[in-house]
Structures are given as C-alpha cells and as structure tokens.
Amino acid sequence: MREASDHASDERLALRFLAGDQGAFEPLVLRYQNPVHRFVCWMVDENAEDLTQDIFVEVHRSLATWRHRSSFRAWIYGVARNVCRRHLRDEGTRRRFWGQAEHEPVDSGPGPLQRLDDSEQNRALLEAIANLSAAQRVTLMLRAWEGMSYDEIAAVTAVPKGTVRSRLHAARQSLAKTLDKV
Question: What is the pTM of this model?
Fold first, then answer.
C-alpha cells in the first residue's frame, strides 16, 4: 500500500505543475504509468498502450480541474475510467474486457495477471477473475492490486462506498465458489 507521504508528494507535484513547473509532471507520469496501464488492461483489453498515453495527455490538459475533493490518485484513476469509457462508446463495436469477450473463451494472452505462476490453481484464479463482471473485476483489482481504500475506489468508479463494498463481497464470494470447485 502507498504511504500517506506518497499522496502528499503527488499533491505537491500536481500543485507545482499547476504553478507552472512543467518538470513536476514527469514524476507523476513515472509513478502512475504502470498502475494506470494495468487499470486500462482491466477495463479494455485492446489498445492499452495508446489509451494509457491518451490518459496522460488528458491528465496534463485537465489537471486544473482537479478540485481536491478526492486524492490525486483517485482523480487520475477517474480520468482513466472516463477515457476508457469514452473509447468503448466511440468504438461502437463489441468490446472485449480483460480476459473475456462475449461468446469467446477466456483469453490466454498476456495480461496484468500473467506474472503469476503457470500452475493449475493460478489458471483457475485467472479464469475466475476474468469471469467476474467488469464492475466487480475492476473494483477487486483496485482493492487487491492497487491497495485503494473503499473511499478511493468509490471516487474512481463513481459509485457509493456501499456499492464498492457489495461489489467486493460479491466478487470474493464468486471467486471462492468457483475456486472451491477446483
């Protein structure tokens, strides 16, 4: 999990950038490029590199709209969510979410979880996660992989904290039920 000092550092860098220090943006990109890329992979299975770049262009362009109602980290993930949703809407075709598509088997190609061992149990876990709804999968991954609090996840996904809790509970129950069969 990230430390409170990291959050303060994010906010200081963002404020320095807004005050005209263009060099303050690069450390933010370096800190968030991998986590944002993982998030994009969880939301959209294709064009992840291009979308990640688009997200940082959007962050650069719209940082002045950040109003400190949430942490910088929650705000940047919210921007990522909006860019991914816009991409999915603008494409106007069936979209594949990480690891699954309508009427297709689970994708065995590389993804954010492919670093796990290639054991039967891990394949079962990957398949179980891929079969969660997109909302449950993203919520679970923000909690488990990014270590976000319920409040941060609520800000990122634009749902109430109670919905975050229920999605996590449902995702965990679904995973447990699926993995009990293995």
Answer: 0.71
The domain that contains 67 carries what CATH number? 1.10.1740.10
Tell me the DSSP string of 109-148: S--TTTTS--SHHHHHHHHHHHTS-HHHHHHHHHHHTT--
Q: What is the pLDDT of residue 89?
A: 81
What's the whole-number mean pLDDT along residues 73-85?
Answer: 91
CA dihedral 73, 75, 80, 85 (to 10 degrees): 150
Q: Across the strands, what pairs with 121? A: none
Q: Residue 98, Cα to own-chain centre: how many angstroms?
A: 11
Residue 93 phi/psi, 5-degree rounding, is -120, 175
C-alpha triplet 36, 56, 99: angle, nearest 5°: 35
Q: How far apart are CA 101 and CA 44, in angstroms?
A: 11
Scanning the structure block, which residue is given the tokens 């809790």? 165
Q: Under 8 Å CB-to-CB from 79, ≥6 apart: which residues?
A: 55, 58, 59, 62
- Residue 14 sits in which domain range? 4-180
Q: What is the pLDDT of residues 27-58, one digit of tens each?
A: 999 999 999 998 898 888 678 899 999 999 99
